[in-house]
Structure to design on (768 residues):
């Protein structure tokens, strides 16, 4: 936490462009790495250089830096931007994922800043499940370490669309190309071994700002984009042709207003007559596209029917795409409640009572064969039993090794037996249909994050 | 099954790409529906401030053509702007929702709470809030808090478990994975739910503009008698009077946040409509809390401490 900067404070005050075009897309990314890699400095630098830090925040940081003896005069500690809580400041640690927001002209960013040294699996999994990209920090002097491999393995298992490896502190190596190329080759090899497509490796100096927001003149041998430009150009998951996937909608609840119409509609006799028998299945489109007239199947049960009406965010519409929040009226009065799935009629899903999964054990408690848990999948929560623990990941090599239990922060494979059928699909096929939580029924704690494996 | 007969059959434009506001709206509606589906007695904290106005608007959309299936709760400090109270009452009437009010004044009158030396009543809201949650047996409490507001809020979950004292334990939060929210709780516990966690101040203003959502008039530039205190313009009112050394001036101002009179400052502004406010906020170099909230200037950890005690 000793990375400090000493530019004049006035030069740091954000000067947003009043005429900047409006943000039109949303991009979520997570940063992984430890304080030693300079992650706090990188995040602080990114926020600052993207002009996301406003004058009163800078003033507060400068005051705190001075009170704690950091920096001299105008110097301050960028890490202070990202360690929020008093307990953290007192202990000099970061205890939880922190969310940051900034925007360039064209894109709004949601940054999940994941602390790397304590409970790294828990934090990184939390930050990565919704991420469009993960930025993994590597110290250029140390190269790809075991911790880097673990970060990459989590990225691979969670199927994050994009991986960016930021090789930091390149200034401490005199911006040496050979040093960077060695780390780059190792990172690309490690990513390839895990089956991660499209990995980007960038030489940066978070402390001095090289290749963070602006391309650096000190790395003429690097012809790729600066980090922020890269994050601005990668397609978000929502932009990666989600419509090409089959339609899936987990039903959250049934909207059946009967007498309780919204007051503006209740005042309109025609609306009252038209909506007398209104009944619609509300949920968020998990994947694909749906249009009025489309044939759908409701699982469990397999009932085939047709969509007669769609509302997007409450207003009538002809069609909807993922990830819009919608409600669907169906031609038949299908007995569908919360937990049911509406899917494209051409999409075959076989609801199962038993399946194999990879679990990230996030709770302090140990998970053992025979444990009774709840599985929350989509909008359904069903009792389940850990029928078997078949393997766990060696935390250094990430190879599967024999195991009969999962301890905190471990990743391993289990077989789950369910009290009721669930329409699960392999995570590799669908992030939405292949993800679930393992919950402790007694106190409601989230024990593990699970991803469904293909049937053997 | 013929819902669209009397309403304009405007296509939601599914064939065009969804923008950031579309995605934030979809996420918020999903969260609101999850909470309504999984909890017995949700309630929405509604102050008439812009963030709670947006959450109530999203709730109305989430259940349309039905009405919002839960009441709203206002903690009245007794120092509220009269314009905001009037707006509050009009809004619940327009949307057909039930209003519950917890009054700080009742607690001061019977001695359960005592006025603070600095006259600020914001910190006094916690007790009436927790009592109202218990009395209404509310197991889920929606709020309009955003993670960009404050360093402590940056670590808050979308669905955040509270014990029976309403306390937030940042070291013991549930991991939040995919869009699978785990709201399971034991008797006595409740959750706070923040559907617009991922929105920024600018997102809120852009959405208010896009949806043309009514707001209290305080948010728009108007002439007002104000005096300077703690680097902010403070309104002259029953609970906010200038000291002898403070001079009253007539200024054109507006509010970026609407708290109570005794701790919320105005900013000088000519922004008289939503489009002008969007431009002003986009060009601002100061955060809304830094600009206008005395309660957050008390200390660096002011928000963290209030949250641990059960504040919003």
């Amino acid at each position: 936490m000793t990375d400090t900067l000493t530019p004049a404070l006035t030069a740091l005050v954000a000067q947003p462009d009043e005429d900047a075009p409006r943000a039109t897309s949303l991009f979520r990314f997570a940063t992984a790495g430890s304080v030693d890699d300079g992650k706090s400095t990188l995040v602080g630098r990114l926020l600052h250089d993207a002009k996301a830090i406003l004058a009163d925040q800078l003033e507060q940081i400068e005051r705190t830096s001075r009170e704690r003896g950091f920096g001299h005069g105008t110097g301050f500690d960028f890490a202070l931007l990202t360690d929020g809580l008093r307990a953290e400041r007192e202990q000099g640690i970061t205890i939880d994922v922190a969310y940051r927001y900034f925007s360039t002209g064209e894109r709004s960013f949601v940054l999940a800043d994941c602390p790397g040294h304590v409970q790294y699996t828990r934090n990184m999994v939390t930050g990565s499940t919704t991420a469009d990209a993960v930025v993994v920090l590597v110290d250029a002097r140390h190269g790809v370490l075991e911790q880097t491999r673990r970060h990459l393995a989590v990225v691979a298992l969670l199927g994050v669309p994009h991986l960016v490896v930021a090789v930091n502190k390149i200034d401490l190596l005199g911006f040496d190309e050979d040093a960077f190329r060695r780390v780059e080759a190792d990172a690309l090899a490690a990513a390839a071994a895990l089956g991660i497509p499209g990995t980007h490796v960038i030489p940066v100096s978070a402390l001095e700002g090289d290749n963070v927001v602006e391309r650096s003149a000190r790395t003429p041998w690097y012809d790729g984009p600066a980090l922020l430009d890269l994050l601005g150009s990668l397609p978000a998951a929502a932009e990666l042709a989600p419509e090409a996937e089959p339609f899936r909608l987990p039903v959250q609840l049934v909207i059946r207003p009967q007498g309780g119409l919204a007051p503006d509609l209740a005042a309109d006799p025609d609306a009252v007559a038209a909506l007398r028998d209104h009944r619609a299945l509300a949920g968020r489109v998990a994947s694909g596209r749906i249009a009025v007239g489309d044939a759908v199947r409701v699982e469990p049960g397999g009932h085939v029917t047709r969509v007669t009406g769609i509302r997007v965010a409450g207003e009538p519409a002809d069609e909807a795409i993922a990830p819009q929040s919608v409600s669907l009226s169906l031609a038949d009065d299908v007995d569908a409640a919360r937990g049911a799935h509406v899917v494209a009629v051409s999409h075959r899903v076989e609801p199962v009572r038993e399946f194999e999964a990879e679990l990230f054990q996030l709770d302090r408690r140990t998970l053992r064969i025979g444990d009774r848990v709840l599985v929350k999948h989509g909008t359904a929560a069903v009792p389940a039993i850990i029928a078997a623990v078949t393997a766990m990941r060696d935390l250094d090599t990430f190879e599967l090794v024999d195991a009969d239990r999962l301890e905190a922060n471990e990743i391993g494979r289990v077989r789950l037996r369910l009290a009721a059928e669930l329409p699960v699909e392999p995570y590799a096929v669908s992030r939405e249909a292949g993800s679930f939580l393992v919950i402790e029924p007694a106190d409601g704690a989230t024990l593990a994050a699970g991803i469904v494996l293909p049937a053997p | 099954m013929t819902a669209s007969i009397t309403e304009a059959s405007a296509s939601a434009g599914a064939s065009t790409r969804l923008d950031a506001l579309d995605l934030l709206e979809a996420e918020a509606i999903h969260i609101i529906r999850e909470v309504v589906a999984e909890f017995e007695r949700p309630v929405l904290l509604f102050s008439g401030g812009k963030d709670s106005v947006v959450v109530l608007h999203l709730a109305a959309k989430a259940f349309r053509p039905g009405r919002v299936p839960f009441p709203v709760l206002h903690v009245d400090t007794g120092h509220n702007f009269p314009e905001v109270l009037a707006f509050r009452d009009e809004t619940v009437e327009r949307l057909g929702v039930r209003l519950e009010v917890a009054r700080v004044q009742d607690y001061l009158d019977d001695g359960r709470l005592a006025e603070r030396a600095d006259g600020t009543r914001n910190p006094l809201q916690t007790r009436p809030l927790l009592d109202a949650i218990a009395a209404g047996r509310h197991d889920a409490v929606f709020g309009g808090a955003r993670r960009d507001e404050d360093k402590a809020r940056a670590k808050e979950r979308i669905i955040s478990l509270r014990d029976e004292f309403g306390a937030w334990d940042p070291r013991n939060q549930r991991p939040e994975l995919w869009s699978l929210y785990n709201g399971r709780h034991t008797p006595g516990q409740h959750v706070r739910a923040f559907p617009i966690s991922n929105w920024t101040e600018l997102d809120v203003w852009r959405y208010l503009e896009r949806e043309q959502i009514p707001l209290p008039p305080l948010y728009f530039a108007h002439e007002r008698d104000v005096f300077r205190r703690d680097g902010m313009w403070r309104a002259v009112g029953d609970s906010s009077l200038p000291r002898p050394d403070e001079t009253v001036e007539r200024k054109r101002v507006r509010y970026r946040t609407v708290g109570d009179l005794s701790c919320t400052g105005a900013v000088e502004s000519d922004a008289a409509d939503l489009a002008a406010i969007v431009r002003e906020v986009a060009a601002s170099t100061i955060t809304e809390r830094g600009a206008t909230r005395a309660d957050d200037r008390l200390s660096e950890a002011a928000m963290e401490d209030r949250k641990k005690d059960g504040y919003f």
Remarks:
- The first strand of chain B starts at residue 42 and ends at 45.
- Chain B is about 30% helix and 15% strand.
